[in-house]
What does this fold into?
Amino acid sequence: MNSKDSSFQAASEKADRRRLVIHDGRYRLPVEIIEPPVRSTGTTGPMLVFLHEGLGSIAQWRDFPFAVSLAAHLSAVVYERGGYGNADPLDGPRSIRYIHEEALQSLPEVLRQLQIEDAILIGHSDGGSIALIFAALWPQKVRGIITEAAHVFVEDSTLAGIREAVNQYDSTDLPERLLRYHGSNTEAAFRGWSETWLSPAFRDWNIEEYLPGVRCPVLAIQGRDDEYGTPAQVE
It folds into this structure.
């Protein structure tokens, strides 16, 4: 372990991490709150809020939320949405509007219960889409957004990538690998994600109408070799 790794490990051990469970009106959701060893002085600062991908969980973020929290000297919140990780299981099939529902119903309730009025939203894939919708409707609550491979509309390459993921799920050890993070939620989490996206009714899903309402600075990141999207998502 080099000195940089040692310093990061030491800072991680000094960080205050609190775990709790909140209810968004539909599901019980695990939450982790991270307080870095050194916070910004002179102001409470915005809260970093991490929104995971379509098959994500708190554990799958690994040390990334803490690393960003440490670098920014800001507190962070990471939580699991219904049907993922250790959250309550889904109470039915995922709606075609499940991303909208997370942005319009669940995320506002999470922020209300955690008393967060000033947030920087950091969203991966589905989480990035949720961040954009929320920021358009509650601009006063969002200081900034970072999206990583957010979906704005459905692409053929996205559907091809999901079909390949289904093939991998049915023919490789992918279920066992996801089981480590999602436990008894694994099957419903995967099928809820893949079957919703591959439904003909989802083909016209689009959130471009919300983008003009996003007033805060946005850093939108999209990989050129991402199997679930192309740079057209950020153009």
